[in-house]
Amino acid sequence: MTDPPPTDSEPPIDYDFGAAAAELRLRLRALIREHLPAGFLGAFSDNPADLALTQEFCKVLADEGLLCLSWPTEYGGGGGSVWEQTTVREEMWAHHEPRGAQYMGVNWVGPALMRHGTEEQRAMHLPPIAAGEVIWCQGFSEPEAGTDLASLRTRAEPDGDGWLITGQKVWTSYAQMAQWCVLAATTDPQLPSAERLTLFLVPMDRDGIEVRPIASMLGPHHLNEVFLDKVRVGPQDVLGKVGSGWAVMRDALAYERVGIARYARCESLLARMLAVLDSDDSWDRLAPALHTRWVRALVDLRIARLLAYRAVGEQIDGIDPANAAAARIVTTTCDQSVAEILMEAAGAAALDAGPTGPLAGAVDDHWRYAQAATVASGTIEVQRILVARSVLGASR
Amino acid sequence: MRTTLPADVVSYGDAARSRLSRLGGAEFALRCETDRPLRDGAGEALSDLGASDLDVRSDLNQFLAAAQLCRVAGSVALPWPLVEELLAIDGARLALLDPMTPRIDHGDLAGSWVGSDLDGHAVAVRPGPPRTAKLGPFVVLAELGETAARISAADVARHQVLASWRILGTLEAAFGQVVEHVRARTQFGQPLAEFQAVRFAIADANVALRGLEELAKFTSWRLAAAPGPRAAVDATVLRLSAVDSAVRVLRTCHQMLGAVGFCNEHDVSVLDRHLQPLLRLPVSAEVLAARLVPAVKSGDFETLFSDAGGVAH
């Protein structure tokens, strides 16, 4: 005979973020309403005013102590809980990331500097990031090394007490806007792949760096080539230790494994589209099959959100890479299915871009960007490999 | 936020697994198809576990314990109407049914029943005699009697949620068997688990299970934390997801197992056939999805932006 557990014997499960996070969500929405125009689609446009808006907004967030909420207070951060950080991530992405390119500096360059940077590097770089005054890009991918980062070919050849870096980076987002780059290069190709790479902190105006934008369906600024011709770097530019690039990358990215809160933008776009359709009864006239696709998309988005929360919760107790990978698989595939639903709901107007297009261009913008969801920042195949490894063990 | 099940809920689930497994697992369920009185052994095992003492209506931890019991019951295809019994009203098992085509799984067991549609319209029911079928071998037809007292929306929601936990348990058990199979089975000189096509299929099924588990926990919490119309919608969301996940995961299971998975002697065959009533009754997945459409429009299907003050622009 087994007795059931007594009532209220332990604290039960609880999915409430807490009052502070709820208040923060409303505060962020109020700031967005106040400082950003309706129809804002992010910094990655041909209009320089959009970039200026994000830089102004970053300063507003910084003044409110919200830009680096996730950072420890000793580095100028807000010391926010992971659930407050999650709220920021959701609200920013839902509203077309009004931090613009600051995302990179705040979410991973800054934390990487805190964990692996020298005192001088932290003093030099953290205050401008915390103030929203600097844009960073990430020089990892190369023409012959995308997912397989250990195969990078860009070489850092020893020269005096430093190195000369020569090679080519590709797909580098924000490279035209950025003042600084975290650049990965091979310092010793003879060593095992885990020890070949070194990360360098390099100003983008240093001699030998040339940026060429790549026109793409994603829109401007998402993709660039960066050519490096004998770019001089010194020991003071090394992030971490020489040969520790792979380890630093893995450690820093561990805090970003959940990635951007794509589910939040999907939910916001569906809510906006529903409001438009409902305003003239178009919602009721949608094909029944689209109604049920819409329902299933919302179901999957809820699951994506819960999987992300599970992975975020593990930041406190230790991260299971498979949980984060599962969250990414669901949220990135949601991004694409919602893109199709929005285009279907828009009908023939789906092909109208710009401010006069559906949701002031957001439907067109989302569909184009969603195509990269299962490719960018770790392909869906890599995520599946991680999940399979957790279930089946490593393949031989 | 606390998303891990309490330790005593987990240990109750462990005790349930130990006791119910002693019945003989899927093989026991298979024997019951031809020797129906054997099912009483399942009822006795549940009695040993104090199932009737679980208060599923007023305490979240007790509900979660019941959910773990349903999950374990699903994992062994327990031939007993556990969800219906946990939600019994005045001793009558509560069956959710479609009044146009009333059917009850294990309806032929001794005891009284009350039937309800998903909107809580209840009727007395007279289950018919046992039938013979591969899919849902214990399902019987039922005749509707007089109108009964309305079933609360909360009870209908609890029914849907506990049924979903039971579905999850079945899927986890089937998936576990498939994982063992692809690690052990060698073809072309290597285990199936070495082929990337197999690894990706396993990964996708595993992601579906992880997602369903999180959704089941969240929805259980919602029933207690935010009762009302939205909790009822949440329960339907979970049931729809459970059914959709079941179709996907079981398809993968059969494909990975090959012909052996279709054999009566294989657990996955039994688990799949005995799960079918939970995937089809009282209504199909498409009907569940259609029932959620008005909730999208009304905002009762809650998202980050379904309330006033939602999207900033």
A few lines on this structure:
The complex is a heterodimer of chains A (396) and B (313). Chain A is of the alpha+beta class.
Secondary structure elements and pairings:
The complex is a heterodimer of chains A (396) and B (313).
Chain A: H1 19-35, H2 48-63, H3 82-94, H4 102-116, H5 119-130, E1 136-139, E2 155-159, E3 162-170, E4 180-186, H6 193-196, E5 197-203, E6 209-213, E7 224-233, E8 238-239, H7 245-254, H8 262-279, H9 282-285, H10 288-317, H11 321-346, H12 362-370, H13 380-392
Parallel strand pairs in A: 1-4
Antiparallel strand pairs in A: 2-3, 3-7, 4-5, 5-8, 6-7
Helix pairs in contact in A: 1-3, 3-8, 4-5, 4-7, 8-10, 8-11, 10-11, 11-12, 11-13
Chain B: H1 7-21, H2 25-34, H3 40-48, H4 60-75, H5 82-86, E1 93-96, E2 103-105, E3 113-116, E4 122-127, E5 139-148, H6 153-184, E6 186-187, E7 190-191, H7 196-225, H8 229-257, H9 267-280, H10 285-298
Parallel strand pairs in B: 1-3
Antiparallel strand pairs in B: 2-5, 3-4, 4-5, 6-7
Helix pairs in contact in B: 1-4, 2-9, 4-6, 6-7, 6-8, 6-9, 7-8, 8-9, 8-10
